From TrEMBL:
This is DUF2071 domain-containing protein. Signal peptide: none annotated. It comes from Streptomyces himastatinicus ATCC 53653. SUPFAM superfamilies: Acetoacetate decarboxylase-like (SSF160104). Gene3D superfamilies: Acetoacetate decarboxylase-like (2.40.400.10). It holds the Pfam family DUF2071.
Length: 254
């Protein structure tokens, strides 16, 4: 029997479904979104089984996203102030599965708290790494720094400095594609799962990239970015709910 994959769901600025019983709650604050275009063939082999690169006008993207995680909490319990609050920087790719669900797949997640790193690796099978990190504001400029500690490659670094600008009243189709992601594809408990999320519509600002010195993208097994990112955005942040994982069936084959 031949199965036909469902066409990708539309890109929507608002989450398609509420999450009434969250697995996790958290805040994502002071986000810097940097993106470079890539050929889908360059990333296809790095994605979870059962997903393919999601594309916009024939290109896919690698995202370098730096932010402050704020008060991670389990279920409906209050968020944790210390162990649940830390800087994070992730390298992510864009995915779609056979059910048409668009999402992201993480190649690495640098975080500054060892306990959440260990839990993320053990429980969610996510590629968390422990790093020395900071997010600093000086005037109208934000600087995000990280230096990898464990497991490696030790010493992989990132330093992003940007200056947020005007509010984006109507994001472009590409800006929606890069930011309005309502789930994550990842290996989970021996299989591949889709973990949905829900949050208010992103408050986005255009941003001027002052400098970017990083080798996290190459450390994640991707080609090192050539030139400046094609998109640089900032957001003050949103409160987030993550739902329980659902298993996708994978990409059907004849």
């Amino acid at each position: 029997m031949t199965f036909t994959p469902t066409p990708p769901e539309p890109v929507t600025p608002d989450a398609p479904a509420a999450i009434s019983e969250p697995l996790l709650t958290q805040g994502w604050l002071d986000l810097a979104f940097l993106h470079w275009a890539m050929d889908p063939s360059e990333v296809a082999g790095l994605l979870p089984t059962g997903t393919v690169p999601d594309t916009f006008d024939g290109a896919t993207y690698v995202g370098l996203v730096a932010f402050r995680m704020h008060r991670v909490g389990w279920l409906r319990l209050p968020g944790i102030p210390y162990f649940g609050t830390f800087p994070e920087t992730n390298v992510r790719l864009y995915t779609v599965d056979a059910h048409g669900r668009r999402g992201v797949a993480f190649r690495s997640l640098d975080a500054s708290r060892l306990v959440p790193v260990a839990m993320g690796r053990a429980v969610f099978r996510l590629p968390y790494v422990w790093s020395k990190m900071a997010v600093r504001a000086e005037g109208d400029t934000l600087t995000y720094t990280s230096s990898r500690r464990w497991p490696g490659p030790r010493g992989a670094r990132c330093r992003i400095t940007l200056r947020p600008g005007e509010r984006v009243e109507e994001p472009t189709a590409l800006e929606h594609f890069l930011t309005a992601r309502w789930g994550m594809h990842n290996a989970f408990f021996g299989g591949v799962a889709y973990l949905p999320n829900h949050h208010p519509r992103w408050p986005l600002h255009r941003a001027r990239l002052v400098s970017c010195e990083e080798d996290l993208v190459a450390a994640a097994g991707l080609p090192a970015p050539a030139g400046d990112p094609v998109s640089v955005l900032y957001s003050p942040g949103v409160p987030v709910r993550l739902g329980r994982p659902a298993r996708p069936a994978g990409i059907p084959t004849p």
